[in-house]
Amino acid sequence: MSRRVYLDHNASTPVHPEVLAEMLPYFSEHFGNPSSVHGFGREARAGLDQARDRVARFLRVAPEEIVFTSGGTESDNLGLKGLAFARGRGHLITSKIEHHAVLRAGQWLESQGFEVTYLDVDGYGMVDPDDVKRAIRPDTIGISIMHANSEIGTVQPVSAIGALARAHGIPFHVDAVQTFGKLDLDVAAAGIDLLSFSGHKIYGPKGIAGLWVRKGTKMVSVQHGGEHERRRRAGTENVPGIVGLGKAVEVRGRDMKEERVRVTALRDRLFEGIRTRVPDVRLNGHPTERLPGTANISYRGVESESVVLGLDLKGIGVSAGSACTSGNVEPSYVLVAMGAPLPWAMGAVRHSLGRSTTAEDIDYVIESAEPVVRKLRAAMPVGAA
């Protein structure tokens, strides 16, 4: 294996060297419990407070509105369940292509007596704000629509949906795990009330994330114990992780715009190169309203897992969907919701680029994809496509 190329940044990213350097002292020198009043605790608390300030500055919100959690899944669960139970009973609106953290939280809330509407999407994976408007009822207590889908990268019209939510006085939760630190988003102007984000998608550590809760938004805790995070999320804070998240956010604020331009060009180079060399391929998701580094490409008539394994043998890391659902031989639920025909849905492969991706990497993937797909198609039974 002469070359290794990582194109699965939507699943996780390598920790940025500046982030690692900032975290290390909090594993050894500044090890205190941030709830302790002595000097050791105050050292840890200072790191936690600095990280909270960094995240708040990036989002242009108040530091006390930031709640640190263990991951994007917890942030989504806290956001959706927290706003639902703060209102007792009622109706919620989401979409069929949300992350499973939202979909399964919605299903669980249904078992607790809430009603949930799961909106359809169009062929690009886009939610129509008019569908949101039609779904609103007098008893609607919350709307949850992601900013961008992790599999296809389609960016949703959250500002239009937020305006609808605000006009009807309905709290609006946005899962921004895939866009936080990648795209600009003015949460105030977009009418958002709760926003989920995560560290390991932006070159921070795993196991740390956050939920922004607009001041005045009614939300109850779903994890009980101590007084941590202003009683919104009990449990001793992961100080090294929080420090790393804060530094990662600071670095993204510095590097985000330049990287966005660069990876967008590489993303387009990837698809154009593969389309030129490999017949019967197509891009899934919106052609322009899409994450800068995401290219979900279907190879008609072959199984996506086989493409992933074939490229892996060449040192290339890509995904057959989201990392949370990899290993599932069923077609992607996202592509099914988009109405993708089965021969295309079964052959969908996600390529997600990042800060370390080079033009040489992209050219190597283009060169490698053609023989892998050709070999797989040659082994297909006659008429299987």
Q: Can you describe this structure in just a few lines?
A:
With 385 residues, this protein is α/β, with parallel strands linked by helices. It folds into two domains: 132 residues, Aspartate Aminotransferase, domain 1 (Alpha-Beta Complex), CATH 3.90.1150.10; 235 residues, 3-Layer(aba) Sandwich (Aspartate Aminotransferase, domain 2).
Describe it.
The chain has 385 residues and is an alpha/beta fold. The protein folds into two domains: 5-13 and 256-378, Aspartate Aminotransferase, domain 1 (Alpha-Beta Complex); 17-251, Type I PLP-dependent aspartate aminotransferase-like (Major domain) (Aspartate Aminotransferase, domain 2, 3-Layer(aba) Sandwich), CATH 3.40.640. The chain is 39% helix and 14% strand. The strands form three sheets. It has a seven-stranded mixed β-sheet with strand order 2-8-7-6-5-3-4, with helices on both faces. The protein has a three-stranded antiparallel β-sheet with strand order 9-10-12. α2 (39-59) packs parallel to α8 and α8 (239-277) crosses α12 (359-378). The radius of gyration is 21 Å and the shape is globular. The model is unreliable at 322-326 (pLDDT under 50).
